[in-house]
Structure formats: structure tokens, C-alpha cells
Amino acid sequence: MLDIARIRAETPGTEHVIHFNNAGASLMPASVCHIMQTYLADESKFGGYEMEDKYACDYDKVYQLLAQLINCKSKEIAITDSATTAWDRAFYALPFRKGDKILTSITEYASNYIAYLQMMKRIGVSIEVIPNDRNGQICVEALEKMIDENVKLISVSHIPTNGGLVNPVEAIGTIARKYNVWYLIDACQSIGQVPIDVQQIGCDMLSASGRKFLRGPRGTGFLFMSEKMLKFLEPFCLDLHSAEWKSQNEYEFRKDARMFEISECNIAAKLGLTYAVQNTLDLGIEHIWQRIQQLGELFRKKLSMIDCVLVQDLGQIKCGIVTFTVEIDGMDMVKLCKQLRERKINTSVAVRHHTLIDMTARNLNHMIRASIHYFNTEEEIDTFCRILQDLIHTSVFM
């Protein structure tokens, strides 16, 4: 259903590298780069505020487009400069009290878990980690048994940073609704590769990145904040965009999720995000997801055929993030990543302290993370595996 030749022609980076680092930052389409360059050129000639006004109708579309992508109302979307900023603005707005419990996953990302620890230190909340099931994903049955009157938040990563598993967020949402517990999802690795319907999932809050599988620019992200939460949450910081100064001793919040924004933002990046989301919608997220799963399955199969390579992905459903180790004494994953880059193949390294609980439990320190996207090809996978095999052979016989 996807015209891969056309898509690659509209992705200039595919001419120069094999890009298997989409979980870090994907290659932007030419249309995204063009609108940002056009805007910056106009801003340099005619002024920042003036061009902000001129392009307002263009970048304001991003709220409607994101709402369409995840099935929510546009007033439930806030644009931020990263997924972390979006997540923080949701988490730190929650009115925790001493004794409240946060339930999270074994594969939780470091930035999120550090925030839990800060809340534990600051207020006295407790953190409990939900066990995995036999497939390595969040065990929904165990989660339900952990629910008591002190549980205030279930906060999980939809797709962890260090592997291919897709957590069962809809089943978790059923538990959250049943017991009236706040539900926050980190979707920075899933938005743009997996279909997301917040109504079907039943989450109250969701954070996501623009630079990864959405193929937008760096410095972009967004927050979904449900109407239910908007009725009682207060952002931890305000300015003249998020609130209106009514009198000397009075201000009034905005009535939509944009109360979690601030007035100053990167307009060029916001325009780029608008075009990136439109591109995803035009291609169809279901078609994207289908191709990613096909490529991911092929990639894992071919990697498993290479001596000494061990694919480390968990989960019943797997996505486009493919992680593996090379089981040779002294093999350095960081050096291997560098050697691949020297051969114009982009990957990254999953390190223990980014998902400390999970990788400690699995006795893993470093893994190569090769994250594919729909514009990648079977030929690129073959080339990757051939070069990887050559590098391993060289290291064995040095």
C-alpha cells in the first residue's frame, strides 16, 4: 500500500546512509525541511513576530492533525519542545499526597523514573513496579492485584526505549478506568509507528515526541490531556499564554490543554511538525504499522542467523525497534556502533542506566538498537547483516 520508491525519493537522507536510528531521530521528509527553511528565510528578512502571524493558519493545523491521529479533541492537545517536557508538565501537575502510590513498568525510562523518585523524596509517594508476564510485557493480571485505595497513578511506557515490545496499553486502560486511577502513557517511541486511539486505550494523559517515528524536527513534542483532567489540574508553571491576567490579584487559566504551553516557541519547528503529522496521516498509520512489523520480523529473522548474534527483544507484539548483542568476549557495543556508522549505517546503543531495572534484571549492559521505519528496505537489512557479519568475523580473527 506504500509507494516506497516515491517515499525514499522524498527522503533525501536515504541517498547517503542506511538509517536504522529512527527511535533516536528519524530522517525528515523533504517537505518538512522545506517549510522550515522557507519560514526561517522569511523570518530573517521580515521579522519573527510578523512571520509568526503570517504562518499562524499553517502551524495551528497541528492541533487538529494530532487530534485526528490519536482520536481526541484538538483542545486536548498541547505542543511542547520534547516528549520529556510534555510528560513532565503532566506528571508534575498531578496533586500527589504523602502515601500515594505510583505503579510503573520494569522497562520504564530513566527520565520518568527519576521524576517518581523526586516525588517520593519531596512528598512521600511510593513506587511499585508491575511484574512482567511470560512474554516480557506488563502483566495485566498482576497489575490488577496491586490496585488498592492508595494507588493514584499508573504510568507506563507504551514501547520502551531499549527493545521491540509493545505493552498492552488498552488492557491497562481497562484496569485504570475500573478503579478510577490516573493513567499516563509515554508514547514517544510509539507515535508514528503504531496506531494510537486514546479513546480506545482509555488514558488520561499521553506524551509523545516529534523527532522519532513521526519524522518531525528535533525540539518538538506534544501532550494529550483529557478533558476530565483539564477540569482540575493546574500546570506547575504559567505565563501570559497559559493564563490571562484579569486584575491585580487575579488570573484565569485557559480552558484547553494549551495551558500546558508557554508563549515562546520555535515556530519553524512547529511548522515542521505540522507537515510531518500530515505526512503520516496521508500515508496511513495502519499501512505504516503493517510495513514496520513486516520489516521488523524479517530483520530479527536474519539477525538470528548470524553466529554470535542474540536478538534481545521481548513481547508478544513487536515493533520496529530491534535490539541485539554480540556474544563474543570483549565485544564492545559502543565501538561496534561506531564501526557501523563509519560504514554509513546509523544505529544507537541501548545502555543499562536508561532502563536500569529491566537491563539489570536481564544482566545486560549495552545492546545495539537498530530501529527501522517504513522507508527502509529489505535490501538495507541484507546490507546491514552482511556488514555486521563481516565486522564480527574481523573481530574474531584479529
Provide a descriptive summary of the structure in words.
The chain has 398 residues and is α/β, with parallel strands linked by helices. The chain folds into two domains: 4-27 and 285-396, Alpha-Beta Complex (Aspartate Aminotransferase, domain 1), CATH 3.90.1150; 30-282, Type I PLP-dependent aspartate aminotransferase-like (Major domain) (Aspartate Aminotransferase, domain 2), CATH 3.40.640. The chain has helices spanning 4-9, 30-46, 48-54, 56-59, 61-70, 83-91, 110-122, 140-146, 169-178, 198-201, 227-230, 267-283, 285-303, 333-342, 356-361, 378-396; strands at 18-19, 77-80, 101-105, 126-130, 151-157, 182-186, 205-209, 221-225, 243-247, 250-253, 309-311, 321-326, 345-346, 348-351, 366-371. The strands form four sheets. The chain has a seven-stranded mixed sheet, sandwiched between helices. A four-stranded antiparallel sheet has the order 11-12-15-14. It has a two-stranded parallel sheet with strand order 1-13. Helix 2 (30-46) crosses helix 3 (48-54), helix 2 packs antiparallel against helix 12 and helix 13 packs parallel to helix 16 (378-396). The longest helix has 19 residues, at 285-303. 45% of the residues are buried. The model has no long low-confidence stretch (mean pLDDT 96).
State the helical fraction.
40-55%
Radius of gyration: 22 Å
Question: What is the CA–CA distance across the termini?
Answer: 46 Å
Mean pLDDT, to the nearest integer, reads 96
Inertia-based shape: globular
Give the structural class: alpha/beta
CATH fourth-tier homologous superfamily of the largest domain? Type I PLP-dependent aspartate aminotransferase-like (Major domain)
Q: How large is the share of residues in beta strands?
A: 15-25%
- Count of all domains: 2
- Tell me the quaternary state: single chain
User: Tell me, what is the CATH class of the largest domain?
Assistant: Alpha Beta
Number of helices: 16
Output the strand order for the largest sheet: 2-8-7-6-5-3-4
| Number of E-state strands | 15
Could you say what the CATH architecture of the largest domain is?
3-Layer(aba) Sandwich
Please name the CATH topology of the largest domain.
Answer: Aspartate Aminotransferase, domain 2
